[in-house]
Design a protein that fits this description.
heterodimer; A: 359 residues; alpha+beta; 12 helices; 32% helix; globular; B: alpha/beta; 2 domains; binds iron/sulfur cluster
Chain lengths: 359, 258
Amino acid sequence: MNTYFIKESDFNNFIDNMLLQLPVIAPVLSSESVESFFSFEFLKNHDELRLDYDITILPPKKAFFPPRQVIIEFSHGKFHGTVNAKKQVLLGVHPYDIKAIDQTDFLFTENYEDINYTAYRNATTLVCSNIQTISKRAFWGSISHDVPARGHDAFLTKLTDLNEAEEEGYLFEVFNEKGHELLSFGQFLLATELQIQQAKSINESIKDKCPQQLNYSQDEMANTICRSFNNTALWDELAQDCFSCGSCNTTCPTCYCFNVEDSWNIDQQSGQRTRYWDSCMTEDFAKISSADGQSENFRKTTAARMRHRIMRKMVYLNDKLGTQACVGCGRCSIACTADIADPVNIIKRIMEEAANDSL
Amino acid sequence: MANNKAKVAFFDFASCEGCQIELTNYGDKDFLELLQHIEIVEFREAMSEKTSDPIDIACIEGSYTRQADCQRLLDIRCRAKVVISYGQCAGTAGINALKNHQADYQSFVYDRDAGMPHLDSDNAKPISSIIKVDYQVPGCPVNRYEFLDIISHLLHGKEPVIPNYPVCVECKRNETICRFLAGDHCMGMVTRAGCGAPCPADGIPCEGCRGFVDNPNQYALSKVLHEKGGLSLHRAESKSLLFNANERDNANKESEID
Ligand code: SF4
Ligand code: SF4
Ligand code: SF4
Ligand code: SF4
Ligand code: SF4
């Protein structure tokens, strides 16, 4: 497929034309208090669009897998599924989040297809955009960095630092038919070789600009973390301030656990089945009922849960995914009120401890 | 048909009756709908009848505060198949428990009447400290929809689900900006969810009105309120007293906290 260019002066028209035809979910300013906070929302007009966002509070997976989703409605003994996916565009997703969506695409179709996810996913045109502002806790430059971002239909790069003679605008790479369809909404020109090279260098050079770094290979980390499994003192230390609040899961783009609950309407005849994002850091996540009417929690302590989360992100899924289940977005680090969730700090601490032990 | 309806009764102890009022807020249409499925046999805030018949579900509001409450509670327990305590006064003694830690509250509250004998009372305690309680609906006041959800589960023979995860979970589902990131403080990390996190969504801290989760990290709470929330050490320590005086690590110590 081809690579195109759209002038800065034509860009707003492109967005507005698209909005006339399709719902568009994109990063917008959610609130400005001490600093700016962004979220993916249904876009109302081009003015709201903030492609210069650093990070959103929740990851874009919510476009296919919302935090609360009614999946069945029932009434007087009959029920029907409520999946009703309509064509939509998810625009402005950063490459690390694209990698995370690629993971949930796999996990929700592996063995048994989760149609509540795939219906919305398949109805979505996914447009990646280059990272213009780096979040203060990001470390995507040094984790899951050797796997390519995959699964998006188009890629938008804002061309900056141009010579005076060059036209300001965006490079628009189209990978398939879905991406191609968007061309009809704007005044696209074929990109020049120079523009393609400029976009490439913009996307390359940002890779080592993250404020945090992990200087270990994926296998080094996985092996050492795995070997630290029984270092209870270490996990106790890492989890000491943990509230079991789950914010490190509920903000994570690669987390995919959910819980399902039924509720009745006031008439007691009708109601709904709703699924909610769940989180393995909460106390009762691993609580199960046993045959004798009792219950058993197989991860009772905060330390056991902290260990489980880190194992899930850095070890358990690596073979299946071909990469870690962490894309380095830094959302968990920002969200953790106790500031103990940052994988960079946790991994560094585990690696240090292992190095000391082997002295 | 009327005989198949679950008989439900409401009782109140030391409380502001705000939870009962919340239950009268369903609106006529919804309330009449609900009456197709339950028969309310006693409800002081809405009707004057009283009975001594057996009841299917007894809903108790308010805290234990005096000896005489014991017999009343035992009578209710004997009559009822299921006992639900609702509201934080009933669940943990909530705000009422503030007095457990203050010797001079009577003169502040009642002024010249402080010495009247009928104002004497014991430490405020949860209903479950006197009789077996089957389910507790958290909140100060309760959320009427959560209350209804629990009743609905019971009517359908299902076990009600009462969250044991903190408010942060619901706050994140709402994509609300965390109070701590907005330069404020919050107690949502130790507070039982189920309310839908309306306070942070309105830009104010969670004050912990639904009581603690089963295992709140109180040590980390003080630390985070102080270091991140900017509260003085003293305030960070005392902050959770308002709704959780009986639940705190130091609940049984004579407290200096003001
Ligand atoms: S673990 Fe943290 S940094 Fe890694 S992907 Fe999840 S939220 Fe992002
Ligand atoms: S097990 Fe935990 S870390 Fe893994 S997806 Fe589920 S909630 Fe996220
Ligand atoms: S690590 Fe932090 S965000 Fe995660 S559950 Fe513990 S306190 Fe909450
Ligand atoms: S605002 Fe309060 S409830 Fe919400 S995430 Fe922050 S600490 Fe938790
Ligand atoms: S957010 Fe906190 S204070 Fe507000 S209703 Fe919920 S538990 Fe109560």
